[in-house]
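dude i think i finally got it to work??
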Amino acid sequence: MTSKTITTAIKDKGLEDKKPIPTETVEEWYEVNADFITEEFEQLEFQQLHATLLNHLPQYPCSILDIGAGSGRDAAGLAELGHKVIAVEPSSALRTRARLLHPHSSITWVNDKLPELKAVRKRGDFYDVIFLSAVWMHLPYHDRQPSFERILGLLKKEGMLYITLRHGPYEVVEGFWDVPDEELMQLIKNYELREIEQSTENDLLNRPGVSWTRFILQLSDG
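look at this
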């Protein structure tokens, strides 16, 4: 199946008028609803969605770890800016669609997930930027602090961490958590990160009651 074919197939299904299929686990939800999710993700442009980050992203080529890369939209946007991207996505259905929709020689796809990131750590690399968009909501409370520490361990000195928090209702309940800004801010304080920018925005897909907080953080050189 080509990139054009998969895009046409998604549009032909009229997914904008459908609801995602309920599942017992969040892992199943992404596999079963891969077409719906991809169509939803691809409605938004990378530059529009992450304009806040682009104001601070280094102009020179960086090594970037995109955790929870989904449809590949953001990995492709970063690669088009000249960066080398390791795109981490545990859903095989989403990885398949992402490779077809956004083929790029500067993107390497990895089957992995938080909190372990075993495959990523096995590579032995460190990153200028770690990118987590719409990921933190999938981590239960007991996994969030270990995940944060693991992520920081993969950053280069003075590396940048970009993380978004979703607030509001979800299509499904299991496997989704509304994480308070204050909880992440406490982790930022505990690990002595520098906050470059924090902003709150309405949902660009106009989902009722949904908003996002974006954090741009920097690791100290100590």
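Residues 1-16 have pLDDT under 50 and may be disordered.
im so relieved honestly
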